[in-house]
């Protein structure tokens, strides 16, 4: 807890140091804040606004990798930011201050257990690029292949651990004091993010993700994934094939190479939907620093993807729900959107569908007054969340990565080709996927998938049939035996209940005999003593009476 407090104080100090108050819209805040904090922050505010993009970038860099990741996501949303701020945040994608090349070399030699001179024919101590979690160096193997060597930043786990603790503290606070915060399920979201970013610290896992993504697109002309050299890969070090391409954000160079920007933007959307729906395995960190373009065929440019540390996946139910929702939304079938939300459990089962439908229509219908190419998925998500306050809709943690990636893709696509119509590109794919899920091809795939299990059970079928027939033939006997047992038990219970009053009378007789007996007159019996003896014998008989 104390660590989180110190980290929070550092964040506040960073906000003050870099004058990030220029991003706060004081005019929208309550009057008592405008009259106190607003007066203090207004001093020098105009001058501080001159280079606020640069100071925001420097502040995020100083706060560490989690905040750098946040800046990377923001940098792709030029529809939400001014160009000067977006240009500064774009530097976070691969221009984070590097750490010492000698330190990187020591990490490589420690993990791969050999001197760099033995591992590589050439090795550049100066890093080629540096990001929030790792940096890369160029090298050449003794066999002649050009490679890049990725090295995790030293002591990065400790910094991330502090930030995760702070995020948990803030998430618990938000969940306690805010009803809207509870609907966002902040603790689950932080847990999911912790799992994701800790995976990013293990380059062996990243190498495995890269291998799977490469196999998924092995014969595709849409995406190329570099080869991993497994003998040189460890938790803190990964060696991959060096690729040459144009950074996807370098628009002037792409234009100079006569790249078909419309085709490039549409192919990016197609790659995303192919990963999500066809492969159930998608690159979830698709900021421009991780994407390059092979412009050798300008009319059909090919993407090159690196940094597969953060990957996402959806199960069949999530994919089906997502596809049907997107199709229903763009067909303006708000009734189906509402029903799907209830069916999937996003809103409580008792939610009135007609009221929810009406609320969704009020949010979405104004968006269709614009051309489809101008509809922002980001604005749709914000609008739906505002609507959700009335219906207790919860954020699903398993879809957080997908939503983040979709926002990245939308921002990148609009940057490449401002007239990109995301719906025209995505709709045919979604409709084709839905047909495949319900068509004979899907049935045959399921048969093929289950065939080995069925084949293993086939020899047991005769025995199972014989056992079932035997059980059917003896079914009547078992039913009769069970009926007789139940009747016998019922008879015994009735007898016990029938004799219960007699036993009670016997107990009372024994008690009465005890009270009327005079112990001093046992040597010469009286009439009362004979009566007492009679009661005693009667009580004893009634108690031992068999049912």
UniProtKB/TrEMBL annotation:
It is an enzyme of class 2 (transferase). Residues 91-340 form the ABC1 atypical kinase-like domain. Coiled coil: none annotated. The active site is at residue 285. Belongs to the ABC1 family. UbiB subfamily. Belongs to the protein kinase superfamily. ADCK protein kinase family. Is probably a protein kinase regulator of UbiI activity which is involved in aerobic coenzyme Q (ubiquinone) biosynthesis. This is Probable protein kinase UbiB. It comes from Marinomonas colpomeniae. The gene is ubiB.
């Amino acid at each position: 807890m104390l660590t989180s407090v110190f980290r929070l104080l550092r964040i506040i100090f960073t906000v003050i140091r870099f004058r990030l108050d220029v991003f706060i819209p004081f005019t929208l805040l309550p009057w008592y804040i405008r009259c106190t904090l607003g007066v203090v922050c207004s001093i020098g505010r105009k001058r501080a606004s001159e280079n606020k993009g640069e100071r925001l970038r420097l502040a995020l860099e100083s706060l560490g990798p989690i905040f750098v990741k946040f800046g990377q996501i923001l940098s792709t949303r030029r529809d939400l930011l001014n160009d000067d701020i977006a240009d500064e945040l774009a530097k976070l994608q691969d221009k984070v201050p590097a750490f010492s090349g000698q330190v990187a070399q020591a990490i490589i030699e420690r993990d791969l257990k050999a001197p760099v001179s033995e591992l590589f024919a050439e090795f550049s101590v100066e890093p080629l690029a540096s990001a929030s979690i790792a940096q890369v160096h160029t090298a050449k193997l003794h066999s002649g292949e050009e490679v890049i060597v990725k090295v995790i930043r030293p002591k990065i786990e400790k910094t991330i651990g502090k930030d995760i603790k702070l995020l948990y503290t803030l998430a618990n606070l938000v969940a306690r004091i805010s009803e809207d915060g509870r609907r966002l399920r902040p603790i689950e979201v932080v847990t999911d993010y912790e799992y994701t970013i800790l995976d990013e610290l293990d380059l062996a896992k990243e190498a495995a993700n890269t291998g799977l993504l490469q196999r998924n697109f092995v014969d595709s002309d849409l995406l190329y994934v570099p080869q991993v050299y497994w003998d040189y890969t460890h938790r803190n070090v990964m060696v991959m094939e060096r690729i040459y391409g144009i950074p996807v954000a370098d628009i002037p160079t792409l234009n100079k190479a006569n790249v078909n920007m419309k085709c490039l933007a549409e192919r990016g959307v197609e790659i995303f939907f192919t990963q999500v729906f066809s492969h159930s395995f998608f690159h979830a960190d698709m900021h421009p620093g991780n994407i390059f373009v092979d412009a050798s065929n300008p009319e059909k440019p090919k993407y090159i993807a690196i940094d597969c540390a953060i990957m996402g996946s959806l199960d069949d139910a999530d994919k089906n729900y997502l596809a049907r929702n997107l199709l229903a939304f763009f067909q303006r079938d708000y009734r189906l959107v509402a029903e799907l939300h209830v069916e999937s459990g996003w809103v409580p089962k008792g939610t009135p569908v007609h009221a929810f439908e009406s609320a969704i229509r009020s949010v979405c219908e104004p968006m269709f007054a614009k051309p489809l190419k101008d509809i922002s998925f980001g604005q749709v998500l914000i609008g739906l969340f505002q609507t959700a306050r009335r219906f207790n809709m919860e954020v699903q943690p398993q879809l957080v990565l997908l939503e983040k990636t979709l926002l990245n893709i939308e921002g990148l696509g609009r940057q490449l080709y401002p007239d990109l119509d995301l719906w025209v590109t995505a709709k045919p794919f979604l409709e084709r996927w839905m047909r495949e899920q319900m068509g004979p091809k899907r049935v045959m795939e399921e048969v093929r998938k289950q065939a080995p299990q069925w084949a293993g059970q086939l020899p047991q079928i005769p025995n199972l049939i014989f056992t079932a027939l035997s059980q059917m033939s003896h079914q009547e006997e078992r039913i009769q035996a069970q009926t007789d047992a139940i009747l016998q038990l019922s008879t015994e219970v009735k007898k016990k209940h029938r004799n219960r009053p007699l036993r009670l009378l016997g107990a009372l007789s024994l008690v009465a005999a005890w009270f009327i007996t005079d112990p001093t007159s046992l040597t010469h019996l009286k009439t009362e003593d004979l009566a007492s003896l009679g009661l005693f014998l009667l009580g004893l008989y009634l108690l031992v009476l068999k049912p």
